[in-house]
User: Fold this.
Amino acid sequence: MTSCKEVSDLLSTSLDTRLPVSRRIGLRFHLLLCKMCSRYQQQLKFLHRAATMYTERAPRPGDAVAVLTADAAQRLTQKIRESR
Amino acid sequence: MTALSDPDNWVAEHGDYLYRYAMMRVRDPAVAEDLVQETFLAALKARGSFSGKSGEKTWLVGILKHKLIDQVYRARNGMQVEDIALIADNFADRFDESGHWRAEIAQWSDPDLALEKDEFWRVFEACVERLPPRMARLFLLKEMDGLSGEELCKALDISTTNNVWVMLSRARMRLRDCLEANWFTGRGSGET
Assistant:
């Protein structure tokens, strides 16, 4: 039987690419019997969903990732003018 | 079919959006500003090839994406050593000799609620930042930009797609642990 250690990698990889049939069958069988790996799977899926949402989130005050400063905007405008 | 707007308005119109897009990935204001500048200048040059099929913003983001991948590629040199350590790491402490979990994977209470909280996103950002730099890059390029295995190999100069998957698996395990420690069992989640 596939070990939890292998399963943890397979669960991650199954988010990125299609696993070969034999791996998928081994994975499904393991998950049927293993509560810990099933939880881990739920948590990886949550992480995947969160990462996707993170991209689409509108900026909030206090975010580390902010907007252009007035100076930066000025510099960019200047550059565009010079290059036209 | 739409035409491009006056480039004089690009900064006002798209500057913040592009800057934020770049900042989420490179986390360095100077580098992000440079990337936005390169994007605008490349867009000026390529103005003639704008087909109008995808709006102006989408077109600019497409250019920025290429600039980002170039930037990752330029910054990649001498970093492969890190990969070897990351892959070899193999979660040695997470599993026992027979490959079973050493510690219990706890059930997280109401993870979907977390997604609605600003504080959760600050923890999320901090956890991504705590990853080794290349791992963070890899994770973001995959999850945010949807790069394929082959594209990730090329951008980060990783030898095989298999190594990409293994590094992503390590990245997710670390993020999972960090979120658990700082949100799901830490101060953030309980008190609502």
